[in-house]
Design a protein that fits this description.
By secondary structure, the chain is of the alpha+beta class. Helix content is 24%, strand content 36%. It has one domain (17-64).
């Protein structure tokens, strides 16, 4: 069984992404919070510049497959 992450329960069904936003840290320009709005609520994930670059590569690959 998966460990719960700060009270969020993982489900066997996917969550629909409704909206996303990034809020940069005032202390570090390459750090911040990625907010992903879903029908269950908002996920807030700490994100670094390296993680953002990896996410961009993944999303670009996803979009290229359309």
């Amino acid at each position: 069984m998966s460990k719960l992450i700060q009270g969020y329960v993982r489900a066997d069904v996917p969550l629909n992404v409704l909206d996303t936003s990034v809020h940069k840290s005032s202390m570090s320009p390459l750090a911040g919070v990625l907010e992903i709005s879903t029908e269950d609520g908002v996920l807030r994930l700490a994100i670094s510049g390296d993680a953002a670059k990896d996410l961009k590569i993944d999303l670009d690959q996803f979009l290229a497959e359309e």
